[in-house]
Structure to design on (439 residues):
């Protein structure tokens, strides 16, 4: 194959040499040393010719390979090596640190295991067409967390408007609420997550901790005697984001933005998947707060640019072949995601059910969803809320909700505006907010 690649490129007038090769589960990367003085674009423009004369489905050219003076030509293997989640979990069982959110996401082009730590990401955006392996990857990540962590260590919120993938985890004890299939209830679930995020910040602040992890360490060291309780990680899975954006649009974007901007320090993480990576689904705000991305096969270059900010995903092979963009590097890593069958998921869920039934949070998902935003120019609404707080000496969102007959989301936003303007203090633990202004 190496000699054939050299010969094809020579036919177009460029003398070059394959200096090394790496074989992975699904592709082999040939490193080509280009002749001095030849523009890289001349070589990369030969992708279609290489695909034709090598008689393969797709060719991906990496020019140059990061940190090297060579070009990478990635050619599909004639025999594909399957990667199974069970094998990966078994390989990693003795090496995996306990009580963290590290997940093995597959094997790279040299066959090495690749993992991510949600604590460091801290959120993840996944995109790919039907059949690309996107949903299977989501299932493998969930299964990995269920296998390694108990419900006391991690809890889930699952939103699945397609009613296909995540309903497999119904009644798993890690769930904070039933699997959500109604798009209208999704924003309500995220409103609860925002409420929980704020409550965690207050608890962490009261114990004078930097973050969620040091808070839990203090609780283990004895703070539980003062009424403080350990907090589990919370991971929110969304599959399919496009369906939700069609129904909730701006409200959903606002909720996602608030969570992704602030939740990292208190152990709340968001993993979102879509098969339609358009600008009206993956908006600029969502992208800005989710620097970690996974791109499976997409239909066209523009889709790849939306999810990765560069081409490449349109040349992938499907069935779990994806490009990973780390938040700490501009270089893409090509990975084969592990496969997990429905039967394996059912066994994992059945084993997890031995922990008991899920303990759902007390939260009404059926309440009418209101806008998560309040127009700061609407002084009439704000002044009405402030008058109630000032007169009744009660500074809480739930009290405003009852008095003004508005949804919790809007009431909470009004309280945040009062805090931003210096009318009330931040809420600290169970003491609530102090009223800082007399009128």
């Amino acid at each position: 194959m190496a000699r054939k690649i050299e010969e094809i490129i020579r036919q177009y007038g460029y003398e070059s040499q394959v200096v090394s090769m790496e074989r992975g589960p699904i592709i082999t990367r040939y490193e080509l040393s280009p002749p001095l003085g030849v523009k890289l674009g001349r070589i990369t423009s030969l992708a279609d010719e290489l695909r034709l004369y090598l008689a393969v489905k797709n060719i991906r050219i990496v020019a140059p390979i990061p940190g090297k003076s060579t070009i990478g030509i990635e050619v599909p293997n004639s025999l594909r090596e399957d990667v199974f989640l069970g094998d990966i979990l078994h390989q990693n069982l003795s090496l995996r640190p306990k009580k963290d959110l590290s997940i093995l996401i597959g094997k790279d082009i040299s066959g090495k295991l690749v993992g991510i730590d949600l604590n460091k990401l801290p959120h993840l955006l996944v995109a790919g067409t039907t059949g690309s392996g996107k949903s299977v990857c989501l299932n493998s990540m969930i299964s990995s967390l269920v296998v390694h962590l108990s419900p006391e260590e991690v809890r889930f919120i699952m939103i699945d408007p397609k009613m296909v993938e995540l309903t497999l985890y119904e009644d798993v004890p890690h769930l904070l609420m039933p699997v959500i299939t109604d798009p209208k209830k999704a924003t309500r679930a995220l409103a609860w997550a925002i409420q929980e995020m704020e409550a965690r910040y207050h608890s962490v602040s009261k114990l004078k901790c930097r973050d969620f992890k040091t808070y839990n360490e203090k609780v283990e060291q004895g703070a539980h005697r003062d009424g403080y309780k350990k907090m589990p990680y919370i991971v929110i899975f969304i599959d399919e984001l496009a369906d939700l954006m069609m129904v909730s649009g701006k409200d959903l974007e606002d909720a996602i933005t608030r969570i992704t901007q602030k939740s990292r320090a208190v152990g709340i993480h968001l993993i979102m998947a879509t098969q339609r990576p358009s600008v009206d689904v993956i908006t600029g705000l969502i992208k800005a707060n989710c620097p970690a991305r996974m791109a499976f096969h997409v239909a066209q270059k523009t889709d790849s640019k939306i999810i990765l900010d560069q081409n490449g995903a349109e040349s992938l092979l499907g069935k779990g072949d994806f490009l990973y963009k780390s938040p700490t590097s501009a270089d893409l890593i090509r990975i084969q995601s592990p496969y997990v069958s429905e039967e394996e998921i059912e066994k994992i869920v059945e084993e997890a059910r031995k922990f008991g039934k899920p303990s759902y949070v007390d939260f009404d998902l059926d309440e009418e969803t209101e806008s998560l935003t309040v127009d700061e120019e609407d002084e009439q609404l704000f002044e009405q809320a402030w008058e109630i707080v000032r007169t009744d000496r009660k500074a809480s969102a739930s009290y405003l909700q009852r008095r003004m007959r508005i949804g919790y989301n809007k009431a909470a936003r009004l309280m945040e505006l009062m805090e931003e303007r210096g009318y009330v203090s931040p809420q600290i633990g169970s003491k609530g907010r102090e009223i800082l202004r007399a009128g």
About this structure: The chain has three domains: 2-76, 85-355, 379-431. The chain has a mean pLDDT of 88.
